[in-house]
TrEMBL record:
Signal peptide: none annotated. It comes from the Bacteria. SUPFAM superfamilies: Acetyl-CoA synthetase-like. It comes from Massilia phyllostachyos. Coiled coil: none annotated. Gene3D superfamilies: N-terminal domain of ligase-like. This is Capsule biosynthesis protein CapK. InterPro entries: ANL_N_sf, CapK_Type1_Caps_Biosynth.
Amino acid sequence: MTEDPLHRERFPTLSAEGQRMIDFMRHHPHAPIYRNHSGNRLLHEEIALVRSFEREVAGAAIGWTPGRPPEWVQGFVAGAFRTVPFYRALGSPPRRLEDVAPVSRADLAADVARFVPDDVETARLMVFQTTGTTGHPLVVPSHPLVAARYAAFHKRALGRTGVVPMHGAGQVGVVLLGFQQRCFTYVSVSPAMGESGLAKINLHPNDWRAPGDRARYLDAMAPEIVAGDPISLREYADLGCTVAPRAIISVSMALHDGLRRLLEERFGCPVLDIYSLNEVGPVAAHDDAAGGHLLLQPRLYVEILGDDGRLAPAGERGEVTVTGGFNFCLPLLRYRTGDYASLACGPHGPVLVDLQGRRPVRFFGRGQWWNNVDVTHALRALPLSRFTLHQAADGELVLGLAHDSLALGPAALAALGPLFGDRRIALRAITADDKVRQYTSDFAGASQAG
């Protein structure tokens, strides 16, 4: 048994068998260097709540049509105006949802505490840090129940492919993949799945003792589900693993069709492209039969807004804007996601068509590729309000900084030195009217399209 004094706090319901699973994953001869600790923090009575929520989500219909909020929205708005400081300060709740002024990531980043309801149990509040692609670093409030409920929507999406997760005690259920210079890595168990194993690993060679350990470890774990972003999944495809998962889930960034096909052919299993946001959780899963990304959350209402903040005409593209969600620590009213699509009705529910979400971009320097997350980490210590990085077709780099951050230019260039060496990086100012795409590149191979 570990000597970590916080171990029991992280795993309140851990059994001896669950501890054996944790030890197996952490101390396997080919295991990576696990740099962090995490846990499910679920109490005994909450495990039943998670299972009940999964059954509810699996069987729930999403029957609303665009432009016509479902009945639950009115009560949700009233509750937010009653319990959430940000909305309570606005006065009485409006009679129509469209009369609520939209909010954005910048609003949350400015003071996210004002968006947390008064009745949230602060003693068990958790926070997740996210950098995103908008230049607005964000802390997302959450709770052990909220974190555990993510799986319900992944299972709903998997069910469309005929995959029902079955792994339980003594088996590894899910391995989450990263491929970054620095990555939060840990092992855990999933109480709602009989304490099946859960591991977050970094495929970057720096986190492994020997080059061949990555494939050996993944084969030994034999996870039922593998999840990651397109950059880590592309690396996974090249490792030479001989044991295939039952399904692969791509999250965080847009998955190109070419890479999806490569993964399907390589591993012979379904590959799901799930549109997910830290602020909202899993929103939709790409479904060829549905013609786009099929919505996953029964209590999430989606609008498409134009640049003027008004509802876009039916069938037109605009900004994906959401109301509702399952994170009771962060109820959202007309939250502008920064992603774009049109909205259509399908036989299985509303569909986001031609979704333009966040796209994986990598940069070349010092003879190797760097994930855009590595760039974020390199600049994290600097108080930059906004920044962009672009790599031209000839490899030249341009770092864009907001006017209030231009004085930090030399420090920013120095911070990027370990990634790009002596390669010249030009500085430019981001004007106030720029619609920022944080990471862009014209360099061949940067899009990770497969």
